[in-house]
Structures are given as C-alpha cells and as structure tokens.
Amino acid sequence: MLCTNPKHRLRAWQGGVETIPRSMFQLARMMTQDFFAEGELVGVLTTQPLDRPLDYKAPEGGCWLGAFVEVPLGPRRVLGVVWGAGRGDFDLARVRSVARVLDAAPMRAEMREFLGRVADYTLTPMPAMLRLATRAPGLGDDPAMRRVYRLSRVPEKLTEARARVVEVMEAYGGAAFTLGELAAEAGVSTSVIKGLVKIGAVIEQEAPRDTPYPRLDPDLGGKSLSDDQALAAATLKAGVAGGGYGTTLLKGVTGSGKTEVYLEAVAECLRQGRQALVLLPEIALTAEFLTRVEARFGMRPGEWHSGVTQTERRRLWRMAGQGDVQLVVGARSALYLPFRDLGLIVVDEEHDTSYKQEDGVLYNARDMAVLRASLTSAQVVLASATPSLESWVNAETGKYDRLNLTARFGAAVMPRLAALDMREADLPGGQWISPHLAQAVSARVAKGEQALLFLNRRGYAPVTLCRACGHQIGCDHCDARMVEHRFLKRLVCHQCGETKPMPAACPSCGVEGRLAPVGPGVERLAEEAATLFPQARLAVLSSDLFGSARALKERIEAIARGEADIIIGTQLVAKGHNFPLLTLVGVIDADLGLQGSDLRAAERTFQLMRQVAGRAGRAEVPGEALLQTYQPEHPVIRAILSGDEEDFWRAEAEGRRAAGVPPFGRMAGIVLSGPDAAAVFDLGNHLARNAAPLRRIGADVYGPAPAPIARIRGRHRVRLLVKADRAAPLQAALAEWVAPIKLPANLRISIDIDPQTFY
Ligand code: ADP
Ligand code: ZN
C-alpha cells in the first residue's frame, strides 16, 4: 500500500530517520531558505515578557531558523529561538548580534506551530509558551564532560547535614548529581558533600553529559494477548504503521490489559523508527510503569517529571530533540519536549483531572496531545476505564475511533457493587464505619485478604470547631478552613499550603480546651479502624504522608506484597496501582463529590467510584465494593451500581446538550484577583458592562460574582463565566474583550478556556 504521508515516504526511502546524515538535513534546510547568513536580520522570540520577537543580526557562521540562541537584552543575556526573518522596523544601527547559538537541535517548524496554536487556544503570551518548551536547566552549558556525584554506601553515623544529602540521593534512586544541584537540593554547603566524598560514602566521577538513551527492543517480551486484546492491539498498530494522524479512545475496565495493548502500539512506533510518549497522571505511578516497560523492551525509557534530577531532565530534553530517546514516560509537561519525530502519544487515565494545568499556562494536556499529534502526523491513544465525557462524545460522533476491552484479563472478574444505606446505620458522632462494612472488612482480613477504606480527604479533620463560641479555624490568607493534620501536628490550609500549630485556646473567644475536630479525614478514619480492628495491620496512603515519591513507591510495593491488612487511602490509591490481595473496597462517603455545584460533579463521582471499586479483586479472588451513602436512590449512585456505563454517559451527555455546556457549548472562566475587594469588583463590573465583542459572537456573560473560594493568599477573587456556542470564535472575542483593559499592577486577570474546576 502506498503511504500518502510524504514524511513517511521519506522515511521508508531512507530506512529510518536516524540514518539520514546530518548533511542531508542541512542541505534540505538550505534549500528551503531556513538559514540566515551572518549579519542577516532575524526575529528572536525570547522567554522574556515582550509582545513580539526582537530583531537581531545573525552571528558569525549564521544560524538556522528555529535555532536556540542567547541574545543580549539590556545588560543581560537571555534564551531565545530564531522565529523567522527580522522585521527591520528598528534602527538598524542599534540592532545587536545574536551572542551565541546553543548546541541543541533547532526547534522544528511543527513545534513552533504547536506552541503558537496552544498560545492562541489558551490565550497565553508566546514567551510563556517558550518557557514551557525550554524547561531544561543548563540549556546553555557546553555538552562536554562534567563532574558528578553518586551515593556509594550509607555510613553508620551521620551528622544532620550529611544525612540530608544521603536522603536526597536515595530519594532520586541513585541518580547522578552535579555538586551545585546536590547542595541546593539538600540545602547544605558543598563542603558537606566533599566531606562525604572524603569518607568514601559518595563517589566523585567525570561523566559525559547528555548521552543517548539505550535502545529499546520492540520485539523482546510481548505477552500473548487474549482475542479482545489482540484485536485492539492490531488496530492500534495499523494506525501507527499508517504514519498519519488519528485518535483512539481505548476503553477498558481496570485490569483488562489496556497497558499491555498500548505497549504494542509503542512497539510498532519504535519499529517505525519514530518516538513515543506515554503520559501518566501521577508520578507515583511511573515507577511501576517503568518496570513494565523494562520487562517489555529490555531497557528503561526516558523519564520526565518533577521527581527527576535537573541533570537528567537536561539530558532528556536534548536527546528528545536529537532523536536519541525512543520512548519518554512523563507528566503532562513532557508534551512540550522537542521530539524529533513523534509518532505516538498515549494519554493513560485520560479522564484524570491532573492533566489540566491549573496555574501558569492553563492547558489540558489531553487536548493538547491531540493537537500536537495532528500537527506531526502521530497517533493518540486515550486510555481509560472511565473516559471523560468529552472523549466519550468525540468517540460517539466519530471524531475519535473507539476500542473496547470489556473483560478483565484472565480469571479476574469485575467486583460486585452494593450500596450501604447510612440512614439505617445510624452511627454515633465521630464514627464513619458502619457495622455492615466493619463486618465485611473483618471477614476479608480473617481470610488473609486486604481491604481498602477509601475517603477522599487528607488530614485528620476538615474542620476545627470551638465548642464554646462556634468559631471555625480558618486560614488567615484564604477564604478556607484550616485542616488538622495530626501526623504533622499542624493545621494546614489546602488552598495556599500555610500551616500553623494547633492553638490551645480558640483564636476568637480565647477559651481553652474546647477546640474539637469535626468530620473525618484519612488520619481520623485510621484511628477508628485501629479501634475496630485491633489485630489488623493498617496502612494510610495519602500524598502528604510521604516525604518523597520514592518513599511512597516503597510503601505501595510493601502493601502490594501483603505487608498490610487494611489500606486507608485518598484518591491516590484510585489511580492504577496493583494490589493483588485486595478484595474489598469500602467507600466511606460516596456522596462526597455530589455536593458541589460543579458541572462535572456527577461525572467525577462516577469516575472516581468506578476507579476505586476497580481496585478490588484484580487477581483470582473475586472482589466486592461497598458504597456508604445517604442517598442510595441518587441517579449517579444508581448508575454506578448498575454497571451500565453507557447509560450513564448517554444521560449525562443529554443533560449537557440541553444546557448547552461542554462539550456541546464552550465555556471560559475568568478570575480577577487583587488585594482590594472593591477594586476587583469594579473591574468585574467594567468587563461585564463592556462585553460587546462577546455579545457579537452570541456569547453570554455571567457575573461578576465572588469566586467559590473568595480569597486565596490574601487576594480577593471575583469570577465571570462566559458561555458560547460550540462553533463561536471564543478566543478571538475574549482577546478583543480584555485587550483595552489597562491593569493596575496589583490586579490580575486569568482566563481559563474549558475550565475543569470552579473555584
Ligand atoms: P489496565 O491497564 O487495563 O488496568 P493492565 O494492562 O495493567 O490493565 O493489566 C492488568 C494485569 O493483567 C497486569 O498485571 C497485566 O500484566 C496482566 N495482563 C493483562 N493482559 C495480559 C496478557 N495478555 N497476558 C498476561 N498478563 C496480562
Ligand atoms: Zn490559605
């Protein structure tokens, strides 16, 4: 079959992109006039907050379009990319030269277009996009040898400072650090590290920087697939082999083998000589995943997330651009790596809310993955047991393909689901585990199986109340209550992270000894479980209880081996971990997510409950999930129990269509914030009154109203909501709307296209 993708044909002809000699590329670039000779004017986009590329003269030796460069700006040198020819509208005599061309593969045209499209979609200035795309430290450094430090053995007695160094080195799993990086990370002076070198605990060595990643072998260790799996894998592989763009929703219950199936698509991508990217929603999941990749392909892939050392991130960024890393596993920002030839993007647990970045550039990595793939003729696989409504609708309308894995692999069957009516349980205050659930837990534990008690609330108690005056302890900077964390022995604001010790007396009335916790968090639930099940070994899994991703990973592995009988956890446990001995899931408060006015409350509850329930019975023993609820007849709870997912999505989609909300209409959330409430409201009113550009496209403007969290970090927050037709040019209208606003220095406007949360 003749392939219509010219890129792919080139590859077939050349026998793999890697084999094309540099000079061929250079020749091709010369011919398309992508090269600027010395002294020619080039426009350089920098990471500085300026509204356009600046003119510079190409340096000695010239430079390529897309080259990463350092340019003088005022007294400084800043990072930039040659974005095109210069405009020439600046006094030529004063135009300065590019200071230096960095030794990195130039940014490809498709990447420049991608950044531009994301900027347009999210209304983000280009310099901020460039910052996202260059988040590799030391880009300007020379790629020569460098001195690195590795842990060799942990000494017996350690000073506190030395212990911190060892801790950091262990936390990164034996990775190499540069001296400066290690000192900064551990918060010690470099002499502490030198001291460790002297006693032989740390080794110092010269290592080449930025070496290529080891080659993966796509033909090594595939599992033999079930019929369902084989069919899905073949379809995905054909898509990858075709070399064009396409998006497929891979829907399959937890444990159905989605990962096995999409790894086959990754294998095909590697065979084609193209690069693959797998996005995961949670760092804690990567360790388990990397082990699987290593088993399948023989080597570890590149890893990109906040738990990776700076040195390693720099290497990965460069190798992505050079084509010397075949597979990258990472968090959402891996999408902005400068891949040389990306052929496949997998978004695992595609419904996960963490794909939406909620500060800085407000983008949804799932949607932007589809955009990037369409620009680079790549395939996208969106994998989930409980897809987002957006993806489900896109599959219904044929915009995406859809593949289903309906059965769990092997002997495992879906857990039995049942509701426990809490109105009948009639529990006394301070208790949350119903007798029925307690019995079920005891029975499982007695058989040597594991039970999970799920409560999506970190800390000990969400509210601390003064029984003398009724005051609830709040954060000084936010419109939020402080959450007691007994493990940390502090009150914590979940909005801004501010902490303070638990006061002895009420901060409002001054009465001592009357402060009482109200409501449960996982820590308090653990206390109740310890009383109810004195013989059982308990494990609490909550993101705040672990100092490092590594500590968390070790705990999870220990639990998977059976070193706990009862797991008490937040949504951290809902995300893809394998606990083979787990057979019972008890959801403490299935109603928790249904209370908000959020458009996605039902969808989120549905997804979370199905995910959590899916943790039970992954191996041979059938599982059971019990949902404690005060409203067993609620349509969402009924849908969860009935197991008819398609029915739920159809009903949910109908409701959204009728209301004209996403994915059938478009929304933008506008949050104005500032230290002075009145000024923020004035701005909101001004915007609402002067919304002609929005009215012209038929959009509705709601607000201004205080945001659901009306104050964060001392800033008052006011919200407007814009609702438009699906086809309306929303971004252009929004840009025109806010353009005339001259913002005082302390006021901020943040525009969130397709908002996922309303706070
Ligand atoms: P999902 O991603 O849908 O949750 P996984 O791919 O993680 O499912 O599969 C669940 C478990 O079943 C894993 O331990 C996996 O290795 C195993 N498994 C799935 N398919 C196969 C297969 N064809 N052969 C052997 N083991 C399989
Ligand atoms: Zn706060």
Instruction: List low-pLDDT spans.
Output: 1-23, 25-31
Overall 3D form: globular
Provide mean pLDDT, rounded: 87
CATH superfamily of the largest domain: P-loop containing nucleotide triphosphate hydrolases
Q: Report the count of strand segments.
A: 31
- Helical region count? 23
The CATH class of the largest domain is identified as Alpha Beta
Largest sheet: 7 strands, parallel
Query: CATH fold name of the largest domain, please?
Result: Rossmann fold
Radius of gyration using CA atoms only: 28 Å
Ligand names = adenosine-5'-diphosphate, zinc ion
Give the domain tally.
Answer: 5
Report the span from N to C terminus. 52 Å
What level of helicity do the residues show?
25-40%
The helix-and-strand class reads alpha/beta
Query: Which sequence of strands runs across the widest sheet?
Result: 12-13-11-14-15-10-16
Strand content: 15-25%
CATH architecture of the largest domain: 3-Layer(aba) Sandwich
Primary descriptors:
33% helix, 5 domains, alpha/beta, 23 helices, disordered N terminus, GIY-YIG endonuclease, 31 strands, binds zinc ion, Arc Repressor Mutant, subunit A, binds adenosine-5'-diphosphate
Structure description:
The protein is α/β, with parallel strands linked by helices and 759 residues long. It has five domains: 14-133, PriA, 3(prime) DNA-binding domain (GIY-YIG endonuclease, 3-Layer(aba) Sandwich); 145-208, Arc Repressor Mutant, subunit A (Orthogonal Bundle), CATH 1.10.10; 227-405, 3-Layer(aba) Sandwich (Rossmann fold); 416-457 and 520-652, 3-Layer(aba) Sandwich (Rossmann fold), CATH 3.40.50.300; 665-753, Alpha-Beta Plaits (2-Layer Sandwich), CATH 3.30.70. 33% of the residues lie in helices and 23% in strands. The strands form eight sheets. A seven-stranded parallel beta sheet has the order 12-13-11-14-15-10-16, with helices on both faces. The longest helix has 16 residues, at 227-242. It is globular and about 85 Å long. Bound molecules: adenosine-5'-diphosphate and zinc ion.
